[in-house]
Design brief:
One of its GO terms (biological process) is regulation of DNA-templated transcription. The protein has 449 residues and is α+β, with helices and mostly antiparallel strands. The chain contains 13 helices and 16 strands. The structure holds guanosine-5'-triphosphate (GTP).
Length: 449
């Protein structure tokens, strides 16, 4: 076999491999232009395509991984892994699939001109990983800092049953804590009354429930804490007395010294690189959990979809960095407007979404209006220019979890589309007449499949 034949045979073998590989493989040029892909890639990417074509990897993935182009252009090495197992959350991407689908993307820079992407459907693995993460956190809570914890007995409604020294040491509360809900250890707007009961219910169902985040002491000062709730075995009521019902044990630990490492891990996995807000993955995970819970115990959940108006014109006039500065400004206002318990996320290029637990349509619309008017009254200073911009918002809510995050976000996007159509710089509420209406473009891309 001469050299040319040898090369041809190797090329054939490579094509065969690409074709038959059990994962999606895409070869692209450095700007994302797709040169070659195998059938699994086409299957995974097609639902995301804007126009039914698949010419560019970055464009195809823009609605689920807006950071990809930036990651690639910012990658300084001559060759290597640009990202490794990045999770891409598809929601309404695949018709007939109720559960959100999660793709994993590994992007390799082969040389100055070529990229190789490896795509895989990891929906099932991610579910398992989540379970393992909880287990890890649980073990961590048991095995470390055993002396530094508050042990709090709770009644069936989450009321604190008695005071002890450990509660005083960790939280500074005295006997006056007795009878109050355990949410007194959380910042004022970090937990709704429904969440308080959700966690007890989850602990009863799973054997324990653990969360980590900001906590407050009696004097209002904050600390970083983990809170584990476990159900206690039911006690026999004294003869003739009414059953006491299940009671719980809350173990509260001050883990301020671990905050930095745990926040960094959280930021890496759940943070948006540009704005520092939650990313798409964090939004969908939180929304899924919230709606599952409100399916079990009905309560309203709202979503606000927010989109900067005429953003292309801002980019055109001030350049991409000017546009980025506006997005960061908007993220800061979003952070100030919403409660600690709300999940504020950047879910696409210039599209943001906020999940508001235990909130009905009128209340969510009031907050959305507050946001709109705050943005309209601000000016962004960028390299000597004063940029004014506005946002449009669409608000929707579900009385229970029925329909899931796909339906809720779709309705918010339909309302957002209506706000854009009505002239922008407006808030529109979803109403049944909008049911068949188009969704705003970013969601439309996902729904087009
Ligand atoms: N600076 C910057 N621009 C982005 C980013 N992500 C998306 N974009 C740009 O945002 C613009 C969105 O434009 P369009 O979807 O046409 O909408 P628009 O100009 O905002 O107009 P309306 O939404 O109809 O008011 C596009 O030009 C994108 O390139 C980002 O991370 N940074």
């Amino acid at each position: 076999m001469d050299d040319t034949e040898q090369l041809r045979a190797e090329h054939e073998a490579l094509i065969q491999f690409l074709y038959l590989a059990p994962v999606g493989l895409v070869q692209a040029d450095i700007d994302g232009g797709i040169v070659m892909m195998n059938p699994i890639s086409a299957q995974l990417l097609m639902p995301l395509s804007r126009d039914g074509g698949l010419d560019n990897l970055f464009t195809a993935l823009e609605s689920v991984a807006p950071e990809l182009r930036h990651l690639c252009s910012g990658y300084a090495k001559a060759a290597g892994k640009i990202c490794d197992g990045l999770h891409l959350h598809l929601n309404a991407g695949l018709p007939g699939k109720k559960a959100p689908q999660i793709l994993s993307l590994t992007l390799l820079k082969l040389d100055a001109r070529r990229l190789m992407a490896v795509l895989d459907d990891v929906t099932v693995q991610v579910r398992r990983e989540r379970q393992l993460r909880q287990n890890d956190a649980w073990l961590n809570a048991i095995l470390t800092g055993i002396t530094d914890y508050a042990l709090v007995g709770l009644d069936a409604q989450g009321g604190i049953l008695e005071w002890n020294e450990s509660i005083g040491r960790v939280t500074g509360y005295g006997a006056d804590a007795v009878g109050k809900p355990y949410s007194i250890f959380y910042p004022p707007d970090a937990m709704t009354p429904e969440h308080l009961l959700d966690r007890l219910r989850d602990a009863g169902k799973d054997g324990w429930n653990l969360d980590e985040g900001k906590r407050t002491r009696a004097d209002g000062s904050g600390f970083w804490g983990s809170a584990m709730i476990a159900p206690l075995p039911e006690r026999e009521p004294p003869c003739g007395a009414a059953p006491e019902g299940p009671a719980y044990c809350l173990i509260l630990r001050d883990i301020t010294d671990k905050r930095e490492s745990s926040e960094r891990r959280r930021r890496e996995a759940f943070g948006d690189y540009l704005t520092g807000l939650a990313n798409r993955r964090a939004f969908f995970e939180a929304a899924e959990q919230e709606l599952q819970r409100s399916n079990a115990v009905p309560r309203p959940t709202a979503v606000i979809a927010i989109d900067a108006d005429h953003f292309k014109a801002i980019n055109d006039r001030h350049g991409h960095p000017g546009g980025d500065c506006v997005l960061q400004h908007l993220a800061a206002i979003l952070g100030e407007t919403f409660r600690e318990v709300d999940v504020v996320a950047r879910i696409g290029g210039e599209e943001f979404a906020v999940l508001l637990p235990s909130t009905d349509l009128p209340r969510a619309a009031v907050v959305a209006e507050r946001l709109r008017s705050a943005v309209a009254s601000e000016v962004v200073d960028f390299e000597g220019a004063r940029i004014r911009y506005t946002v449009s918002a669409g608000v929707a809510s579900l009385a229970d979890g029925e329909g899931g995050i796909d339906l809720l976000l779709k309705r918010a996007d339909q309302a957002l589309y209506a706000a854009k159509r009505a002239g922008r710089n407006r808030v529109e509420r979803w109403r049944p007449e909008l049911a068949g209406a188009p969704v705003h473009q970013a969601q439309g891309d996902r729904d087009a499949a």
